[in-house]
Amino acid sequence: KVPACFFLMEINNVFQIPALYSSRMEGCTDWSVDYLKYKVLLGEPVRIKCALFYGYIRANYTHAQSAGLSLMWYKSAGHGEFEEPISFDGMRMSKEEDAIWFRPAELDDAGYYSCVLRNSTYCMKVSMSLTVAENDTDLCYNSKMRFFEKAELSKSKVITCQGIEDYIQPGAEPEIVWYKECKPKQWRQTIERRRDTLSIKEVREDDIGNYTCELLFGNFVVRRTTELSVTAPLTDKPPKILSPSESQMSIIELAIGSPVNLTCSAAFGYSGDVSPLIYWMKGDKFIEDLDEERVQETEIKTIREHLGEQEVSISLTIDALEESDLGNYSCYVENGNGRRQANIQLAKKELMYTVELAGGLGAILLLLICLVTLYKCYRIELMLFYRNHFGSEDIDGDNKDYDAYLSYTKVDPDQWSQETREEEHFALEILPDVLEKHYGYKLFIPDRDLIPTGTYIEDVARCVDQSKRLIIVMTPSYVVRRGWSIFELETRLRNMLVTGEIKVILIECAELRGIMNYQEVEALKHTIKMLTVIKWRGPPSNKLNSKFWKRLLYEMPFKRMEPLSISHEQVLDVSEQGPFGELQTVSAISMAAATSTAMATAQPDLRSTFHNSCHTQMRQKHYYRSYDYDLPPGGTLPPLSTLGSQHTYCNIPMTLINGQRPQSKSPRQQSLDEAHGNNAMLPLLPRETSISSVIW
């Protein structure tokens, strides 16, 4: 039997605590909170043991009792807060030797439990934390209360059902059921269940997951969950640099002042919990030792990760390259198995034109010159091609009746020459025929379509206003006679020219600079806001493929239609409408009769001549604008009275109305002209036919 005084001395030696690991609070040595933390699910039993007897003193609970020490329990909501003595009910919560049992634990049981071992002389204290939580939704565990294990691919692993020692009776074989992801599983042959362990002989990637062990303790169920993560086997090789190349020096030429971004990427095998080590150096200096704010090293970036193997990258940036920044830079990667490096040399880029660059620029310049030349030479053709294939008809001026108004002054007969004949032939025959018959335009020609009245100027102004373009055939005669004077006299016409309401096309048929009042032509050009001048260079310009017609067609309103073939034998149809389109047509016979009556009324002295000498010819054939109508032998013209009160307009040559008699240089031609001028109903000459008008 040991003397009491000896046991007390031994207890005193046992309870001597270094001041480094404890602190005295109110005369008691406080060991703070024990490292072992108790975690339990709601409804499960749990046993909290006083940690003083399991690592802090060299005595057990029985020795403490023999030494006269008592064990007391306190609870607090948080460490360092007010501690309240625990009263045990002996049912759900009970004190058993050096531990507290909860059968089962409730949410209110969470907190800090302190066990105090003391007598009148000595006092020692330690706290244990208890966490009580519910299962996650639709799961058999709480994700914050799991154990964690790692296993290498293709190697063996043993998963233990941890923290169940307090629930197994000594000498008894526990009945443990294993689940994966809270569901029963048909385990493969390489996985064995032994008592409280689950042994996997060859770990596979699909073994990753949560393993739950379950056993019965009285009327309660105890579960413990372990999360298993699978990694690649531990590597025994150093990392591999992916870029830049390890085998050779990479040379990068950059201009001074340009930004720099050098990226180094590498692949790291699994090395446990060690983070990848990758960095840049310039020579033998780390980047942070350069003391240059312009030169920075970015954070390590993980590009991809699988089973612990990682591909990472790090970048070296320079805001603006300077001479001092040129040199060799090295990217280093390393782990416990070794180190590798890749080198990059920054060099200054020399600004020099190589043969390839010079050739490329020359080719581009040559192509540009060719395109500009092509556009300059064939601009009109290109625009017409685009307009014909992709353009749409002009909608501006859709409410106007005519595409163009043709202004021209005829040449006096006493001033005729070869040149003036060509100009008049162009203005009165070729120009209207091509525009109307070939391109389908509708022209208004005063000498043809306008009946002389007392309001001539107003009629001209109205017709110009109803036209989309104004074509002025500028000849010496037009300049001398000041053919544009009507556009100055009429205020409406002048305003149209000045404001650009109508686009003017000025066709110059000859050199006009030598004419006396040429300066007025220049003044007229400056007055017109929208003016285009086109040169007519004589008979060569009459060809349809000439530059003249392409330019004129480009300036005319765009009209999409099939071109019509023309000949000098084709003229306006009798049903064409002019300003008198509402008038009805009459037959050639009625027109001839009306013509006869009109001429006889206008010139009484010609009546007998008409009826006696020319009526026989009219019975045989009637001529007007190259159309001919055969009358049957013995046929007669209907009397004028049959026409009733209907207005009848006849085909009368404008030369006869104006009293003009064309002059001919040859006596024979002169005699024909005189005979024609003195005979009211002789067949019209071709020149007169072109001037005459068909008006119904």
From TrEMBL:
Annotated membrane-spanning segments are 351-375
Q: Which GO terms describe its biological process?
A: negative regulation of exocytosis; nervous system development; signal transduction
PROSITE patterns attached to this UniProt entry: IG_LIKE, TIR
The record's listing under InterPro entries reads: Ig-like_dom (IPR007110), Ig-like_dom_sf (IPR036179), Ig-like_fold (IPR013783), Ig_sub (IPR003599), Ig_sub2 (IPR003598), IL-1_rcpt_fam (IPR015621), TIR_dom (IPR000157), Toll_tir_struct_dom_sf (IPR035897)
Gene Ontology, cellular component aspect: cytoplasm; plasma membrane; synapse
Positions the record marks as coiled coil are: none
Write out the biased-composition intervals (Low complexity): 660-670
Q: Where does the TIR domain start and stop, copy by copy?
A: 400-556
Where is it localised? Cell membrane; Cytoplasm
* Family according to the record: Belongs to the interleukin-1 receptor family.
Query: What protein is this chain from?
Result: Interleukin 1 receptor accessory protein-like 1b
Q: Which organism is it from?
A: Takifugu rubripes (Japanese pufferfish)
Lineage of producing organism? Eukaryota, Metazoa, Chordata, Craniata, Vertebrata
